[in-house]
């Protein structure tokens, strides 16, 4: 009997696990279960719409999904439509590949005001994730504060200041692009508690900021050290050195001819969100870095803004039956093993770090562990799940349905754009019903 495996989540880690499994000689049948009818996790809903070349990795995932041993079961949320216990009864092995789809709290007074929008929500909104179809941030503001010094913070800043022309050949939904373009935003402040050496930007993303059509990156040259100091591996030192060189090329004042600015504001930590119910500003404290850690200096300043986007990390959204490690915030796992026949991969396993390819070794490891634990299967798998979903009247979708949605989105694209995304599950399923 084939080993029957349920992979929960169709992001990179789910696909790398599936791919590693089908590339072995073992007799396996894999169901990839996702809460959305659209696969690929953050490739569709996280990676920035203007970074289409990064999204091309999904073509390889598509080949995996079309393998005869693989089924896609979309529009099924584990924890809501089916429980972990039910899946563990139905499959020999269950792999948790659900990512970390929550926003952690900023943890300062006022962080619950309207206008504080975590990066998951903000990025999910501009990427047309159906969870945020009813959400629209208030962009009636000249300034925006983005908290964080990583690539997600840069993505948010860039999407807010790029021109309509720059965003044409992207999959930014037209309605959302128009809304951003009509906003009076001129200044985006990207705050980091530590300095330019500690910032986690990759150099490609940083360099791109120097080539925007109508926005300049602004940096105070006094905060740029002459060289990278501190304990770094050779590779990290080289990366940071390259970033410093890039930042030295950025202008230091607002005298530039471009109408918008992205301020790389280092050595500053948020201490309070200002306003009544709605955000009217943010109070920041200047910091000093001692032994690699940021410490408040007691010197404060304020920025007037109606939108604060914390891009400070991600949180797991656990469901019943999924053990969580309170220390790491990830699933409680030992090198990917949660329990016998129960595994974790990707962000759910190790937290929100690395690039897309970092999830590949996780998938390979989970595949090896499954094949160590099982030489053959004995459970119902796909047919059992389909019967259960039928009993519960859950309308699930398959990979053919995704291909129908994909075709329709591609057909609906504005000139030059790769697709016009459907923004609700209802609209996605309506297309499937019509086909
Ligand atoms: C904003 C942003 C931009 C990024 N940009 C880049 C980039 O440009 N380049 C790069 O290399 N990396 C980038 N990354 C990192 C990359 O996206 C991640 O490394 C990768 O997506 C993690 O894969 P994953 O499979 O662990 O999780 P995810 O990609 O999050 O996939 C999780 C999947 O699980 C599904 N799911 C969640 N809960 C359930 C449930 N209860 N039931 C069923 N399904 C569920 C979700 O719908 C989703 O499809 C970015 C990350 C973010 C957040």
Structural overview:
By secondary structure, this protein is of the alpha/beta class. The chain has two domains: 3-101 and 315-396, 3-Layer(aba) Sandwich (Rossmann fold), CATH 3.40.50; 119-310, FAD/NAD(P)-binding domain (3-Layer(bba) Sandwich). 32% of the residues lie in helices and 18% in strands. It has 16 helices and 14 strands. It has helices spanning 12-22, 42-45, 52-55, 58-65, 84-90, 119-126, 151-161, 164-168, 174-181, 203-208, 234-248, 347-350, 360-373, 382-391, 399-411, 425-434; strands at residues 3-8, 28-33, 70-73, 93-96, 143-147, 187-191, 215-218, 260-265, 268-274, 281-290, 293-304, 307-310, 337-339, 342-344. It has a six-stranded mixed beta sheet, sandwiched between helices. Strands 7-8-6-5-12 form a five-stranded parallel beta sheet, with helices on one face. A three-stranded antiparallel beta sheet has the order 9-10-11, with no helix packed on it. Strand 9 and strand 10 (281-290) form a beta hairpin. The longest helix has 15 residues, at 234-248. The chain is globular and about 70 Å long. The mean pLDDT is 96. The structure holds flavin-adenine dinucleotide.
TL;DR of this structure?
With 435 residues, the protein is of the alpha/beta class.
Q: What topology does this entry show?
A:
Blueprint (H helix, E strand, L loop, with lengths): L2 E6 L3 H11 L5 E6 L8 H4 L6 H4 L2 H8 L4 E4 L10 H7 L2 E4 L22 H8 L16 E5 L3 H11 L2 H5 L5 H8 L5 E5 L11 H6 L6 E4 L15 H15 L11 E6 L2 E7 L6 E10 L2 E12 L2 E4 L26 E3 L2 E3 L2 H4 L9 H14 L8 H10 L7 H13 L13 H10 L1
Parallel strand pairs: 1-2, 1-4, 2-3, 4-14, 5-6, 5-12, 6-8, 7-8
Antiparallel strand pairs: 9-10, 10-11, 13-14
The structure holds flavin-adenine dinucleotide.
